[in-house]
Structures are given as C-alpha cells and as structure tokens.
Design brief:
This protein is α/β, with parallel strands linked by helices and about 500 residues long. It is built from 16 helices and 26 strands. The chain folds into 3 domains: about 5-15 and about 25-155, Rossmann fold, CATH 3.40.50; about 185-405, ANL, N-terminal domain (Rossmann fold); about 410-505, ANL, C-terminal domain (GMP Synthetase, Chain A, domain 3, 2-Layer Sandwich). Helix 1 packs across helix 3 (about 65-75). The longest helix has 17 residues, at about 30-45. The N and C termini lie far apart (about 55 Å).
Length: about 500
C-alpha cells in the first residue's frame, strides 16, 4: 500500500494540470499542490525536524493547512490537528502531551497561543501562515516555502508508520491522542470513496473545520485519493459562499453535519435551485441525524442524503448508507468495504442479530492505540476489536442502528432508556427545530429524562403541548419529566450538541 505522501505524488504525476483545490478565486492544480507540499517539507526539515517528530496545526481552513499536513507526513513526521475553539491552556495540554516541536498557526490563533507559549517547552518554532516575512517574530510560512526545492525529500516512510494523532474531544476526562497510521487513513479513504461511489470528476464542498477527523478524511483525503477537486471555503458560516459553490462551482458532493442540514432543511431557498444544482449526494456524519431532516433535504434538493457513522479511533468512517441500493430509515447503513462490525455485551461476547449492545469494529482503519496510554488502549482495543462506546443493534442484512452513546443511556426504574429515541420523537413535531435529552437524578426512579427544546422561529409551543405530543409517541417511562425551552443549544466546533454543558446546568432539576 502507498503512504499519504506517495499517494499525492502519484495523482500529481497522473493529472498534473487538473484542479486539486479551489480557494476563493485561486485554482491550485495537482502539480502545484505537490510542489508546494515538497517546499514546505524541506522547510520544516530545515528547522531541525525529523521522522517521528510532531507538528501541530492550529489554523482556519486555507490551502496552507493542506500543504502542512502533507508536508509533515511526506518526511515521516506526525500531524497533530488542534481544535481552533480550544483555550490556550487546553492547547498547551495537547502540545505537551505529545511533545509537539513545531506549531503552525495563523495570526488569529497566535493571539490565543502567545500567552501560554512559555508553558510549552517542547516547541522550538512557531510558523505563522499569514505573517509577512520581514514583520514576524516567528517563522513566516512564505519563508518556509521559499528557496527550497520542489522535489520530494528523501525519507523512508511505510504504511505502518504513524501519520496523525487525533485528540478526542475529552468528554470523558482529558483528551486522548488516537494514533493513526498512513495505512489506517488510506484504507479509510479508499473504502469510504467506494461506499459513496466517488469519481475523479467530483467536486467536494469543504466548509467544515479541517481539524476534525471526519472533515479531513472525507473532504480532503477522499477527493485527493480519487484525483477529484476540493472546493475549499473558510467557514461553515459562509452561507453565501456555499450557495455560490453550489451554483457556479458546480459542487457534486456536499459533506455536512446534522446542525448544517437542520439549518438547510429549514432555510428558504430559491425553488429553482433544486433543478439547476449539480449535486449528486449529501453525506452527513459526526453526530446522529434526525430522520425528519433527511426527508426535508431530499425533497428540497432531489438528491439522496446518506447518513454515515464513525469515530476518530476508526480514521473515522465505519459505515454509511449506500447511495445506490437500500437506504434504511433510522440506520447509518452497513459497514464500508473491508470493515467488520458486531454487537457485544459487557463481557465482549457477541450478541444475536437484533439485540442491543455495544458496537465493536474491526478493520484496516482501526487506530494503533492511544498515545502513551496503554491501559486505555487495552480497554478500547480488545482482541483486535475497537469498542466504540456506542449502543447499537444490527439487522439481518448487517445494517447498523445507533441507539445512543453508552454514557448517555438512562436507567429509569432499572429500565434502559435511550435519549436519542426521545429526541427522534420530538423532532417529528413540526414546531421543534432542535432538541436534546439528558438524564437527571430522581429519588423515586433513579433517573428521569429532561428535554431541552428550541422552537422554530415565529412559532410558540407550551410545555403542556409537548407533554401531550410525547404521550402519543412514547411509553410512559420514556416521557420527559422536565422540559426546558431555550433559544439555542450549546455546540462544539463541529456543531455537536454539548450534552455535558446541559448536564452541568441541570444539576438539581
């Protein structure tokens, strides 16, 4: 198998003039992309880096992010993508945990990092992507690229070598670095592209933050692996840019997360858009997608929306509903090619079809382990299977149905209650645009559900109406005991609802 660097080199040699990345009004052909990557690789090596060294990337979406990522893996370094929404202290924790030597950032995020640089002793250089060479106290990116050869640096890199440390979101304690190899990432790009039938003429719309594993694998590695084109936008908030990319750049594959599709489903758009866009498929990942949203999107655009499932520890894609063939409501689809799944109990014993338990995954995409955390690795990787922490079931045809996160499950009078089931019911109410359900302590029942609800703009909804609606759709023990209306729900950078924030504000409900 190839490495990430050799993959890009091969595509650049095969289609040198084809547009690899379009950013703003600039088109970057594959040859130029590959040469820029080599320039940066030589520049980083000139700073004293060598194989195995870690390079952190803390930067908004821009071509330099892609240059840096591929430059690092080309000489055998390890990329550490850093969440741009973190505080300085949170960034310092990640940098120190894996001993980042060079940090590549922008002026915007340098302001966050500068006050804590003294707390990160392993950093030898900070590279600033948008700094003028003569004005920067750090290394300017243009200096890094200048006066360096465009040929590939000599390096012995194999598919088994580590390429990326993806730090988990830390919802259960401190973030952990999931170690992914070249082979893990390339296998996932190859098998995922087969599952959604990607071809070289496709144009991927990329507006989600690139530090997220879902974004980089699906929106960068897959299109580059297939020799397709990336339409790179600066932000998910640039809705006018998204519309322009749909209409004028002729995007064919739209990758999003549930919050984006929720907005798109409820946003007023010109009716003609349904008939003049070039989209072939929508793909949703990163968090569960409410079934009603899928129907609205497909009706509005006339193309399939395929929900997928994955986790950082699996590079990250595990399953996706097929573009062609059977797409089942409520399912995230069958596993992608070369990936196996099973449902297990607390003793990691396989359960029969239809029974609910923890989803376990096996395949070439599964991580090598957590960086310097052997005990956590041993708990998560058991006999070659990755225990996902997600509660799920399989049907006779191998389709996966995610029931909920293991840690989100409630015990109401000793009965398992899954918040997602309650949320799915609430999402069918025409006045509810967003919701989340958590468990809160209850003396009589142990735990009870609490629902947080965002009402559609211009509509009104009472607690009594919600309760009556729930009674028609849910068993008595699943009914929310508490209901709280909010103008919005807290979310992270990839628009996942932060249930931990809702829990911390609901103690004593």
């Amino acid at each position: 198998m190839m490495t990430l660097g050799s993959m890009l080199a091969e595509v650049a040699q095969r289609t040198p003039r084809k547009c690899a990345v379009k950013f703003q009004k600039r088109k970057i052909p594959y040859r130029e992309l590959h040469e820029a990557v080599n320039n940066v690789a030589h520049g980083l090596l000139s700073l004293g880096l060598q194989k195995g060294d870690r390079v952190g990337i803390l930067c908004e979406n821009r071509p330099e992010y892609i240059y840096t990522y591929f430059a690092v893996v080309t000489f055998g370094g390890i990329v550490v993508p850093i969440n741009t929404f973190l505080t300085g202290n949170e960034i310092a924790y990640i940098v120190n945990d894996c001993e980042v030597k060079v940090l590549v950032t922008s002026n915007k995020f340098l302001r966050t990092v500068q006050p804590v640089l003294g707390q990160m002793p392993t950093i030898t250089h900070v590279v600033v992507v948008d700094a003028a060479a003569e004005q920067s106290e750090h290394v300017a990116f243009e200096t890094l690229m200048a006066s360096h050869p465009a040929d590939t640096p000599a390096a012995e890199v194999s598919p088994e070598d580590l390429a990326v440390f993806i730090y988990t979101s830390g919802t259960t304690g401190k973030p952990k670095g999931a170690m992914l190899s070249h082979g893990n990432l390339l296998a996932n790009a190859r098998d995922s592209s087969e599952a959604i039938h990607v071809v070289a003429k496709d144009k991927f719309l990329l507006f989600l933050p690139m530090f997220h594993s879902f974004t980089f694998t699906v929106c960068v590695l897959i299109p580059l692996f297939k020799g397709a084109t990336i339409l790179l936008l600066g932000s998910v908030k640039a809705f006018d840019d998204i519309k322009r990319a749909l209409l004028f750049d002729r995007a064919t594959i739209f990758i999003g997360v549930p919050a984006v599709f929720n907005v798109l489903a409820n946003k007023s758009l010109p009716r003609i858009l349904k008939y003049i866009h070039a989209l072939r498929v929508f793909v949703s990942g990163s968090a569960p997608l409410p079934s009603p949203v899928i129907g609205k999107i497909e009706q509005k655009f006339g193309v399939p929306l395929c929900e997928g499932y994955g986790l950082s520890e699996a590079s990250p894609v595990v399953a996706v509903n097929p573009r062609f063939g059977v797409r089942k409501a409520g399912s995230v689809g069958p596993p992608i090619p070369n990936v196996q799944v099973k449902i297990v109990d607390e003793q990691v014993t396989e359960l029969p079809v239809g029974e609910v338990g923890e989803l376990a995954v096996q395949g070439p995409n599964v991580m090598q382990g957590y960086y310097h955390l052997p005990e956590d690795t041993a708990k998560t990787l058991v006999d070659g299977w990755l225990l996902t922490g997600d509660i799920a079931k399989l049907d006779e045809e191998g389709y996966i149905y995610i029931v909920d996160r293991k840690k989100d499950m409630l015990l109401v009078r000793g009965i398992n209650v899954y918040p997602r089931e309650i949320e799915e019911a609430l999402y069918t109410h025409p006045k509810i645009v967003e919701c989340a359900v958590i468990g809160v302590a209850d003396e009589a029942k142990g735990e009870v559900p609490k629902a947080f609800i965002v009402v559609r703009e211009g509509e009104t909804l009472s607690e009594r109406e919600v309760r009556e609606f729930c009674k028609q759709n849910l068993a008595t023990y699943k009914l929310p005991k508490y209901i709280e209306f909010r103008p919005s729900l807290p979310k992270n950078a990839t628009q996942k609802i932060l249930k931990r924030d809702l829990r911390s504000g609901s103690e004593g409900s």
